[in-house]
Design goal:
This protein is mainly α. It has 14 helices and 3 strands.
């Protein structure tokens, strides 16, 4: 059975899905290459075969899931003007592929960030107090902004807009997504006073940006020495995000601020609160 999933010429399909620019652009390229090398168009059997190949590869489960999602997204985009029954058929095909047989979706480990993966206020204070001045400033900056370490180390002075009490900084994150972060003027001035960068906010004496790997390594060493915990620079981003949610920040607003490609990523990482037995019992008691 070689049922066409898309009612157009295969070559047109491949060129069309390659031309679309969004967060799945890179993830769908391996499928286009696979179709070209195997001489396949976009059919139910070819998609199934591609999914089977992905499952038998050495790729991480999350990577496999992203590539599967990219193929499904492109197929749905190409079918956007098709009759509703054709679109429903496409969804049934994907649902069956995800659930059964060698093409089914791989299982992944829980990616949620729980309390054991974030730092408390007191732990942040202990970490900062034990660090050298440059690393302490990096820790304060990362925990106050939620930046990725790679983003922070590439901030340029020209991207800073300084106000009376706060500073707005334009940064470019993953997939070249541009967004703004905010921090107090006092922290910004402290960073400027120490690093005195001419081009970069975190600049070495040689005029280069501070290396992200170096900062991460120093934070990891401090975590083991001071807290007896395995942490990284990314732990500070997780800490910021979790504390923001606890203070009532809306999940979609936080997702945009963090530069996530979708709200679902933020939900998977941080929306993992559970009702305690007491809270659940109190709620049920009110109902009955």
């Amino acid at each position: 059975m070689t049922t066409d999933l898309i009612r157009t010429k295969p070559n047109t399909d491949l060129s069309t899905i390659s031309a679309i620019q969004d967060s799945y652009t890179n993830a769908v390229k391996p499928f286009v290459t696979w179709c070209t090398e195997t001489g396949n168009g976009i059919t139910e059997e070819s998609v199934k075969a591609y999914f089977v190949d992905l499952n038998s590869s050495d790729l991480a489960a999350n990577t496999v899931l992203i590539r599967r999602a990219a193929v499904k997204k492109r197929c749905r985009q190409l079918m956007i003007d098709a009759p509703i029954d054709e679109q429903m058929k496409l969804d049934r095909v994907f649902a069956n592929l995800d659930a059964y047989g060698p093409a089914r979706s791989p299982k992944v480990n829980d990616t949620s960030i729980h309390s054991d993966k974030i730092l408390s206020y007191s732990e942040l204070e202990r970490l900062t107090a034990a660090a050298t001045q440059p690393i302490a400033l990096c820790i304060r900056f990362l925990s106050a902004t939620g930046c990725r370490i790679s983003e922070a180390m590439q901030i340029k002075i020209g991207h800073v807009e300084k106000g009376a009490e706060r500073v707005k900084i334009t940064i470019t994150g993953k997939y070249n997504k541009v967004r703004n972060i905010i921090l107090p003027v006092t922290l910004y001035d402290a960073v400027r006073a120490h690093f005195r960068g001419e081009l970069y906010l975190f600049e070495t004496k040689g005029g280069k940006p501070l290396q992200a790997t170096y900062v991460s390594g120093q934070i990891a060493k401090l975590g083991r020495k001071v807290l007896d915990r395995k942490i990284s620079a990314h732990t500070l981003r997780h800490t910021f995000s979790t504390l923001m949610l606890r203070r009532g920040c809306m999940i979609d607003a936080l997702s945009r601020y963090l530069g996530h490609s979708s709200v679902s990523i933020t939900l998977d990482l941080y929306a993992h609160n559970e009702l305690s037995d007491d809270e659940l019992f109190e709620f049920i008691s009110e109902l009955v």
